[in-house]
Amino acid sequence: MKFDTPATANPTDRMKVLGKPLDRVDGKLKTTGTAHYAYERNDAAPNAAYGYIVGSAIAKGRIESIDDADAKAAPGVLAVVTYQNAGKLGKAKNHTARMLAGPDVQHYDQAVAVVVAETFEQARAGAKLLRVNYARTAGRFDLAASQSSATKPKSGTPDTAVGDFAGAFAKAPVKLDERYTTPDQSHMMMEPHSTTAAWKDGKLALWTSNQMINWAVGDMSETLLLPKESIHVMSPYVGGGFGSKLWVRSDAVMAALGSRAIGGRPVKLALARPQVMNNTTHRPATIQRLRIGAQKDGKITAIAHESWSGDLPGGGPETAPNATRLLYAGANRMTATRLAVLDLPEGNAMRAPGEAVGLLALEAAMDELAEKLKMDPVQLRIINDTQVDPEKPTRQFSQRDLVGCLKAGAERFGWNKRNPVPGQVRDGRWLIGMGMASAFRDNVTMKSGARVGIDKKGVVTVATDMTDIGTGSYTIIAQTAAEMMGVPMDKVIVLLGDSSFPASSGSGGQWGGNSSTAGVYAACMALRERVAQKLGFNSTDVVFEDGKVKSGNRSVSLSEAAGDAGLSAEDSIEFGDLTKTYAQATFGAHFVEVGVDSATGEIRVRRMSGAFAAGRILNPKSARSQVIGAMTMGVGAALMEDAIVDTRFGYFVNHDLAEYHVPAHADIPMQDVFFMDELDEKSSPMKAKGIGELGLCGVGAAIANAVYNACGVRIREYPLTLDKVIGKMA
Amino acid sequence: MKAFTYERATSAKEAASAAVRTPGAKFIAGGTNLLDLMKLQIETPQHLIDVNGLGLDKITPTADGGLRVGALVRNTDLAADARVRKDYGVLSRALVSGASGQLRNKATTAGNLLQRTRCPYFYDTTKPCNKRQPGSGCAAIGGFNRNLAVMGTSDACIATHPSDMAVAMRVLDATVETVNAASQTRAIPIADFHRLPGATPNIETSLAHGELITAVTLPKPIGGTHIYQKVRDRASYAFALISVAAVIQPGGRGRLAFGGLAHKPWRVESAEAQMPNGAKATASAVLAGARTTSQNAFKLPLVERTIGAVFEEAKA
Fold first, then answer.
1. Are both A55 and A204 inside the same structural domain?
2. Would you state the pLDDT for residue A539?
């Protein structure tokens, strides 16, 4: 099904199942430990051996020699695979660094070997016995030091310019010109990268924790130099990804090589937590410069956002200025994205790449501008709202209710109680402050397919390679199929995460919910057509409800319609030009109250409230879970997450969860989430948009702005740790 | 983890004897730190002597009105003990500010004293660390050291001791009781139990080889207002940037001990005379001789500010 004209009335509008806050259909499996994750596939791949990865001890250089005698002789060890005996390997297009080092080493903890043994403990002990001699060479590890050598990336849209920024900024009566920095961050999803791999007759079966099944097949094919048809990827349950599992990583490649080395017997391999940070990808650090010029009435006349980040040779930038291109009006504007070469582990997408860090700068700058203007920060944002793409004013937004979000959020939060003068509100030792920020995230759509069948019992089965990375895909896909086919939820079976199913959008960039359900919509429409045809019904007036197919005064049960053979149909949704014709994005507003300990400078969030406009909310319960999870991640980004680079050795030092802090329960207060009533007909037939990442975008800046309101200290270097606060606090 | 042999000891003497007898032996109780370190091969004992069966899990009154805390009393139980909460509040508060509920359920009194530093270079076997590998150098000096020591450091090591419990025990003048293979007992004042790094940061306590902690005794209660103020980057489950254990008497005199500053719980008894003169004077006396880096220099003003807050809280 092509989606190239705005949706009109369709069966999703019935909202009998869609739009309901239903429990997760996979909730019981997950809470009882009966959902089998990649490392737990003893059912499908019994008698597995265990793999353990040896990571490089240097960040850059060369492997001079490898002595595996002791490792091979260790109890239980079955094989040691290194570049010397792995056979020829390719590098997948999606990978910047190779999954197996040798002889060159590209980053610290890059896989150098996999040790395969009978037990996990034996594999880990064997791994320690591998002796690798390295010749270390100098690398570039310091973004600030490399900033001046950064260049314009070859792909993407590194430069944008409209009007005369320099002239307008020079003339603006009120100006802001500030520098903000954000640190490297690690995804630190709960389930580390994990795979069970097995070979049979030259074919690879891969149970792996992955967000994008179709890409995983491609990545493995390009790495192992194997036809795609020889690779079967299964990932029905994923314990979080945040972008870290958009591509297969070394766990999958090394488990496959390990299994091949022992004759195809299954090998299971999970990265140890300390390996997650340096062996895999991370969100790159940024240096950002914001310049905003405004009239005295608050109208922005000039806005510029520049960003610098680093990556390995051949890698890409963090596109921090994304949101600035679309969020506020202003006739004269420019953005620039620059990329330095750094020899740190591969930088790549982490939840809301671009916007998540870009808004940390932009929305803090807007708060500073509001203060210079002596204007309420909410009002400043309302004044600068735009209903068209500011770079291309003929291009309208498909739906844009930022102002509605700002107003609703402010009302729910009690923003009118905020004292705009910093440092005025106390609760005992705590200085209390309120801050806010806009939320913005692109709405991306991706082609997505599904197969839907009905059996003789009237049970509807959906199969698609879509993944559920903790987001609720199983549930909203079941809701979609139930709505479309007119059956209750308990008559729907959803099968996900298998490369033998039709290729889907996968999960990433907050495109998965909307795109994959649209793919299921397409398949359901095809199936409805088949049912109608089979029954000789006029497909334009046929109604699917209560397990029946009705047309005029005729009514046939679905099971009867399916017959003994059953009926099925496969289709995909293919998105046309509507994302080009219309700017498509999701919007929101964050409001936060913090306390700053007047003695110690400790910052604690006291309450959070957000209003969001993201098209049709397919399931308010799972959508809310996405948003509060994202807000929680935003607390981490604002206050604690910081992958510390040791610029001497070139690696992230604090590589475990004791030292890389993400929020604990005690850090998270009451979180209030409100969804605007919205349908976006230009986004998809579901009239929905992405919601998985929006909640993260802007929340950290709202916290920073609240800290300023609490204690009068502006910190432009994230995270806002207390050492940065007490230096400037009275 | 390297393969190891294992035995369950049934008496303290037997445990100590086994430790002397067996090369590379270590005691294990809760294992909340030791097992993690073994998985990373930072600790590689060849033999583990499980002391959980020694019955040292009671809290009993002492003749002089204090409490004797068995070496195996779990952190959760010690924190919750009514006598501890009533008379040694600083200890109870320090305990519950540490680790997580699950870890406190498992972690023991003696094990808590013996937990090892959280310096990130100690935890990475590809990096130099004099504590882990004597003579290899200190990667923390000149590296990431925001949370490392500012007092009593050496050119060999700037690691901190991570315990909260030990800081409270230091302010209470607790005594560590031990027994060795010859059945000789020792009572080591907590002040002398942990060592400064000097040239041998790998030697962290004054325990002799095979010497087993049997109990920690708390002197009779000294009254006063008990406060444990832990300053950290997140609200729970984080090691202290600094912490202050305080027992403050009417009139503002009292005792102060500090976590997060040194290789051992940090207490400067002579500085306590400055307490009635306020936070600035007290902090200045406590921090005399501090050696900071650009990353951890914030700990000095933080100590002064936190002492100030503790004094205010004691007055309230």
1. yes
2. 77
